[in-house]
Amino acid sequence: MSFAVANLVRRGVSRSFAPRVAQRAGVSAFLTTGLRATPRRYGVAAFSTKQESTTDFDPEAVTAMDKQAPPSPGGDFRIAIVGAGNINFGSDEGPWNHSFRLEHKLGPRLKVTALIDPSEKRAKQVLKTKCESFVESAYKDTKIFPNAEAYIASLKPGDRPHAIWVGSPPAYRGRMEKNRDLEVVLCRELPDIPLFVEKPVSTGPVDQAFEVADLIKESKTLVSVGYMLRYLKVVQKMKQILEDNNLNVMSINARYIMAYEHTAKLDWWDKTQNCGPIIEQATHFCDLARYFGGEADLSSVMAHSVEHDEPAGQLSKIPVDESLIEPENRIPRVTCATWKFEKGAVGSLTHCVALQGQNYSTELDVYADGHMLRLVDPYNSPILYFRRPGDDHEEIVRYQNDDPFFSEVSNFIDCIEDGPNAAPILSSYEDATKTYALTWAIRMASERTANAKKNSAN
Ligand SMILES: NC(=O)c1ccc[n+]([C@@H]2O[C@H](COP(=O)([O-])OP(=O)(O)OC[C@H]3O[C@@H](n4cnc5c(N)ncnc54)[C@H](O)[C@@H]3O)[C@@H](O)[C@H]2O)c1
């Protein structure tokens, strides 16, 4: 991000933006009152951060792909996919792979009519792999387009997709500027076509992301954003405990310690590309913190960092040549932030680029009077450790075969097919934009502190 844009965002966060978020504090009710449903199959209820919402979480709901009934027969379900990369087509980096889950949700009904990606080579490669497999029928007629405009220009009335699945880099979306305004183009040219959009919603100025959110809301386009951890059963269980006991959350403490040894994308290490690990990665935990704690008061955010040029920030196994990145654009190794939630609780986040090997160490704790809810390892093996009032023991809650990626895909398809009350969608575009705002506020606060320290040393 350029200095000018960073300044724009900084102004937005510290002045106009924070009150704007406050005004929007009740907006998640849009998501939850509009889309609440009895979760017969997927075990997730459309909870809001409002205390009056009810919990109808079903721990028995089947969420694993291999435990689902075979997809029902029916007409074609046409999808245009944006981005031929890891999130949509899978990689060794993690369990994400939206196309795989769409195939299992829709079976032979799935028809991927378009794959939009400026890298024709990558698009051809993933289509070749699909066409050599048993899912060939979904991809044999897929056309490749370099951008959304070319795709839209080619559309004939019978080709209109039932959904557009966006997994392109966030640098090309969530803004009002040409070529970075994907959602604006889609809502204008293809209104009424539901959009699945990956996190984070953008890498651009926060106020532009809110403009996009407003346009989406006005167009009444159904949108689901990929904050899949909300769909975890243990997360829904935590929500249920908080709501059933009418608890006021006192503190939320998130700890995200990543294993960096195999993070070999140069852009990830460059703040001008991926915006840094809070906006790109810890966004999932900032989102969960908001899910449990409500809106954060952005003006209260304070943060410290360990930067790349400090003794404590030296890492011995960085898998890229970091010297290719300008020193001022290198990511911090540690970011520690605290803030107040508007409802009074204190939030904190520690993000650390420290571990080697493969597995991250992640945990999010929620405290309320007499209660401790400790969510451990939500990515790999989610467990909830739960302490009740008047008791010293920690109960353990664990659900087998829970696949939050499948739940978010499945719920979205059900809403498209059976109406917006068919299944809960837990992250709207506007709600996801508030998470984006919190992550920027944390990055800005840590940079302010680091710069102040440098200036005082000079
Ligand atoms: N929810 C999760 O757990 C999760 C996991 C991985 C990635 N993601 C998100 O998914 C998004 C994509 O990440 P990825 O890992 O798939 O990246 P990637 O680099 O593997 O793939 C991105 C693809 O998009 C293409 N592309 C570039 N510009 C484009 C444009 N303007 N229009 C269409 N396609 C374009 C690239 O050529 C590439 O094929 C990011 O926002 C990332 O944060 C989310």
From TrEMBL:
SUPFAM superfamilies linked: Glyceraldehyde-3-phosphate dehydrogenase-like, C-terminal domain, NAD(P)-binding Rossmann-fold domains
Q: Which InterPro entries match?
A: Gfo/Idh/MocA-like_OxRdtase_N (IPR000683), Gfo/Idh/MocA_Oxidoreductase (IPR052515), NAD(P)-bd_dom_sf (IPR036291), OxRdtase_put_C (IPR013944)
Question: Which GO terms fall under molecular function for this chain's record?
Answer: nucleotide binding
Source organism per entry reads Malassezia psittaci
Q: Which PANTHER family match?
A: D-GLUCOSIDE 3-DEHYDROGENASE, UDP-N-ACETYL-2-AMINO-2-DEOXY-D-GLUCURONATE OXIDASE
Superkingdom as given in the UniProt entry: Eukaryota
Q: Which positions fall inside the Gfo/Idh/MocA-like oxidoreductase N-terminal domain?
A: 77-227
The residues covered by the Oxidoreductase putative C-terminal domain are: 230-371
Query: Could you identify this protein by its name?
Result: NAD binding dehydrogenase
Query: Which segments does the entry list as coiled coil?
Result: none
